[in-house]
Design goal:
With 145 residues, this protein is mainly alpha-helical. It contains eight helices and no strands. 68% of the residues lie in helices and 0% in strands.
């Protein structure tokens, strides 16, 4: 019979941290601030409602407007992950391009990188699944070094 290895404090902390991130109470605590931040970024990026829905994982239009109204909500874990990716993309752009106009406008520029195939980054992220957000985040993080 195989013996299990003793668990370390780091193992326990990782399990606890993962469970905490997925807990409804923790998601509820993060949802309001995350949505407020997202809508500020959406304004800076000049995203229309459909683009916002795409980045958020295509919630119903009525759900988007409920979230915009600032009513207390508990976002799904997937949506919080998407928001985290958007925040990282925003931060990376502002580090790479200190000119805010360029940083915020980069998403709308046609891009020759094979990831985008001549399309704009925002179109790629909106039309793709969560993997498209991960790919853009990795690209920008790689450029940051």
């Amino acid at each position: 019979m195989a013996r299990s290895l003793p668990r370390s404090e780091a193992d326990d902390a990782a399990v606890t941290s993962s469970a905490l991130r997925r807990s409804p109470a923790e998601r509820r605590r993060k949802s309001g601030p995350a949505l407020r931040t997202f809508f500020r970024i959406a304004d800076a990026w000049r995203l229309d409602a459909e683009e916002q829905r795409g980045l958020l994982g295509w919630p119903a239009r009525s759900t988007l407007y409920t979230w915009k109204a600032g009513r207390p909500v508990t976002l799904p874990y997937d949506t919080l992950i998407r928001l985290s990716l958007v925040f990282g993309i925003y931060k990376a752009l502002h580090i790479l391009y200190p000119d805010a106009t360029l940083a915020d406008g980069w998403l709308r520029l046609p891009n020759a990188n094979p990831l985008f195939g001549g399309r704009t980054p925002v179109a790629t992220m909106v039309d793709g699944d969560i993997e498209a957000l991960y790919a853009v985040r990795r690209l920008l993080d790689g450029r940051r070094g």
